[in-house]
Structures are given as C-alpha cells and as structure tokens.
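so my prof wants the structure for this chain in the tokens format not the other one, which i didnt know existed until like an hour ago. anyway here's the sequence
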Amino acid sequence: EKKADPLVLREPQLAGARATVASAEAALAKARLDLARCEIRAPYDGRVRQKHVDVGQFINRGTPIGRVYAVDFVEIRLPIPLDETGFLQLPSGLDSTEAEPIVALAANLGGRESTWSGRVVRTEGEINARTRMLNAVARIDDPFGLRSKIRNPLPVGLFVKAEVLGRKETGVYRVPRSSIRGKDHLLTV
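here's what i got, hopefully its the right format
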C-alpha cells in the first residue's frame, strides 16, 4: 500500500494554520494580561489634581497621565523670618520625640472667616536663598472631613494666615510698643 504524499494531505498548510492559531492565542493571552495591568491605582486615598490623557488615547510606558494628591492630610509651607525662629520651638523632623507646635490657620472663604488647626511637623532644613526665611511645614489632618465631619474643608492651593504657638517664657512683661526706643531702650515712668 502506497502512502499519500504530505503535500497532497496539505500537512504543511495544516501545521502553518496550527502555528497561526497558537500565535493568535498567545497574543490574546498577552492582550488580556496587558488589559488587566491597565487599571491605575494610587497607593493612597486621593483626589485628581491634573489629568494629561483622555479616553481612547494611546500612551506608552512611562508617560505621565496625571497628578494625584493625598486627602488624609495636607502640608503647608510657612516661611518664617530668621529673627523670629528664636521664639518658636521648631522641630527638625529628624527626631520623632520633638515637640510639634500648634498652628492655627485662617482664611476668608466666600466672605466668611474659616479656621483650621494643625501642628508644625518639621522644617525644610535650609534657608531660602532669595527670601532669607526658613520654611516650616505644618500638617493639617483630615482637611476634607472624610473621617470627621468638619464644616469647612481646606481647599488645596488656598493662601492662609498662620499663627504658630511659640515657646512659653517666664520672667517677661508686656509693655506698650510706644514705650520702646531703639533696639534696647525702654522708657519708664
């Protein structure tokens, strides 16, 4: 009995078709894996500040797609003149046992005064070369009232007035500014 020729049985074409199917199945598995990896998540609860892409837009690996900020706390830079740093007990941020002075923040929002309370958690560690001031960093916990219902959420980017609770001094007296002459003279009656 004579065997049929492989070309007559179309074995090379059948093997090619099987290879094409295997390649397509591998491409489908890779596409499914890529799609599963397309979900973008921040490692913290936050809000989108900027978005750089739209639906249907093709992006490559490493392309910035937006900016997100955390909502569990906000940090505010407070520039402090060098001659006023002696009145404050500012933490360096290097030691977790350092005191964190209380800071009261206020701003005019919608025609009414809004206030927030926080603490100074560190300084930036260098003097600003342009302003000659030291930047302290104040932290406000739960600024949007997600864990506790607050009346006035603190909007990101708002300019605020800050009062930092200074160190307590003993043996000092309050005198009217009008009785001070020069840097170190006090008029008494």
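also thought this was worth mentioning. Residues 92 and 125 are 7 Å apart (CA to CA).
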